Amino acid sequence: MSELGTRLKEARIAKGYSLEDLQDVTKIQKRYLAGIEEGNHSMMPGPFYVRAFIKQYAEAVGLNSDELLEQHKSEVPVSVKEEVRPTLTPPTPSRRQTLAKSSSSGMGEIMPKVIVALFIVVILAVVIFFYNNLATNDPLEDAADEEGVPYEETDEADEEAPPAEEQPEETPAEEPEEPAEPETSLSVVGSEGETTTFAWKGPATRELKIEASGPSWVSATGPNQQELMQPARTMQASDSEAIDVSGVAQVRVRLGASSNVKLTVNGEPIEYTQDLITQNIVIQFTDAE
Q: How far from 175 is each of 90, 172, 179, CA to CA, in Å?
C-alpha cells in the first residue's frame, strides 16, 4: 500500500465511511477506490482518471486535494490531456430559409386583399362597359333618324344613370393573440445533509444547462435513477452540457466540486444555499398553468 493510499484510507475511516459509502458519495466504482488505497493505478482507465479520482476521493473525505497531490506527486502518474469532444448543437436555420418563411407568411396575409380588390375592379369594368353600350345604341334615337322626324329626348333621358354601388371591402379576420409565456418561479424547499431541494414552476418546455469553470465530477439522474447525462463524468473548465428536462418531474444533480459548476434552468441560475464542496441539487418541476 502506498503512502498516499494509506493517508486516504485513514481519512476515510476517520469519517466513518466504508468503500460502499464512498462509492455512493463519489460515484466512483468500489474497485477503483480500493486500487487508489492500494496504490494499484494500472487498473484505472488512464492517467487522467487517476488524478481525477484521487482528487474526488480526497475532497469527499475532507482533505485538500491539490496539496495532497503535490506532496505525493511521485506516486501519481502524469496525466495526458484528453481530447474534449465538442458538444453537438442542432443546426440553426439559414438566413435564406428564414426570409423564405417570412415572405411566404407575408404573401398569405396580402393575397386575400388583392383578390377582393381585383373582384371589385372587374365588377366596375363590367358595369361601365354595359352603360357605355346603352348610351351609344339608344333605340329611340335610331327610330327617329329612320323616319326623318326629330326626336326630342325627355328629361328622364337626360338624367344620368346612377353610379354602380361599390361593394364594401372585406376586412381579414383578426388573428388570435398568442398566449403569454407563463411566469417562472424558483424556491428552496429544504436542505438535508449534502442535499438541497428546489421547487421550480414555469413553462412545460425547459432545459437544464450545466457549465463547468474547473474540474468536477457531475452526474444527472431522473426520478427512476435513469442517467440524463451521456455519460456522467468529470467535467473540465469550459465544458458544458444542455439536457432537455421537458416532461421530467424531478432531476438530481451530483456535484463533486460545486464551486466549479453553474446550473441554470431556461437561463435562470440555481443559487446554492450550502457552502459545501460535494453536494446534491434536487429540482422538482411543476408546469405553470
A: 31, 9, 12
Quick: pLDDT tens for 201-245: 999 899 999 999 999 999 999 988 888 887 889 999 999 999 998
Span 173-198, pLDDT tens digits: 677 666 676 788 989 999 999 899 99
- Report the alpha-carbon distance of residue 111 to residue 62 in Å, rounded: 72
Q: Give whole-number Cα distances, 17 to 38, 68, 119, 283, in Å.
A: 17, 19, 86, 27
In this structure, whether the domain defined by 3-71 belongs to CATH 1.10.150.120 is answered with no
CA 36 to chain centre: 40
**Which conformational region is residue 132 in: left (phi greater than 0), alpha (psi within -120 to 50 degrees), or beta?**
alpha
* 28 half-sphere exposure, CB direction, 13 A CA radius: 28
Q: Label residue 287 exposed, middle or buried (CB < 10 Å: 0-12, 13-18, 19+).
A: middle
The three-state (H, E, C) secondary structure of 49-83, written as one string: HHHHHHHHHHHHCCCCHHHHHHHCCCCCCCCCCCC
Rounded to two decimals, the pTM is 0.40
Residue pair 220/227 in contact (Cβ under 8 Å)? The answer is yes
More confident: 281 or 176:
281
Confidence of residue 269 (pLDDT cuts 50, 70, 90): very high
The residue ranges of every structural domain in the chain are: 3-71, 185-287
* pLDDT-above-70 percentage for the chain: 74
Rg of the chain taking only CA atoms, in angstroms: 40
